[in-house]
Amino acid sequence: MDIRFEFTGAERDKALAALATRDRRDAVLMMAVMVGGAALSLVWPFAIDIPSATRATVGALGSALVFCLVRQGMEMVEKYRRYRAGLPIDPGYMRGLEPGARTLTLTLDGVREHGPFGRRDFVWGDIADVVEDEHLAALIVSPGECVVIPKRVLERAGHKDLEVIGALVRQAHAE
């Protein structure tokens, strides 16, 4: 099935906002680390006798500091990988969000996109995740690459949801 559409700058902005907020695990992980550090500092035997509230505060802040240092190291590694892959270092950029005319071909084998910067072919096993909101569907290939399909285009092609695409991705990962 071939789908032709124009991906606008406004749609790109909505896609960036949806993809940026799809994963809030860093904030949740930070809270878990702080609670764990506070709890550990309350039960850990210290040679110095200080009030438990002070120990909990020091434990939470210390574990948050360690978390931030580790997270910065992970971000540096991710930027280096993006640099080596030829992607922009800015992690907010994803290849596939460029505005312009596109032709999308969905087959049983995978998805092919002819866009503003050439042709990209992906088999369903390459798709790591499918993100959907009220305006778009994004097939996430990697942290720096996706295929975006506006919902208006899916509805025009006769597809109200991504059930078939999701089934193809799940089956490809099961094999």
Q: How much β-strand is present in the residues?
A: 15-25%
How far is the N terminus from the C terminus?
A: 24 Å
The shape is elongated
Query: Helical residue percent?
Result: 40-55%
How is the largest sheet built, in terms of strand order?
Answer: 1-2-3-4
Please tally the β strands and state the result. Answer: 7
Structural class: alpha+beta
Radius of gyration: 22 Å
Largest sheet: 4 strands, antiparallel
Could you report the average pLDDT, rounded to the nearest whole number? Answer: 79
Structure overview:
There is one protein chain. This protein starts with a strand and ends with a helix. The chain has 5 helices and 7 strands. The strands form 2 sheets. The chain has a 4-stranded antiparallel beta sheet with strand order 1-2-3-4. The protein has a 3-stranded antiparallel beta sheet with strand order 5-6-7. The chain is elongated. Helix 2 runs antiparallel to helix 3 (52-84). Strand 2 and strand 3 (110-115) form a beta hairpin. The chain is 47% helix and 24% strand. The protein is of the alpha+beta class and 175 residues long.
Main features:
three-stranded antiparallel β-sheet; alpha+beta; 175 residues; four-stranded antiparallel β-sheet
Task: Annotate the secondary structure layout.
Blueprint: E1 2-7, H1 9-20, H2 25-43, H3 52-84, E2 100-106, E3 110-115, E4 118-123, E5 129-132, E6 136-142, E7 145-150, H4 151-156, H5 163-174
Antiparallel strand pairs: 1-2, 2-3, 3-4, 5-6, 6-7
Helix pairs in contact: 2-3
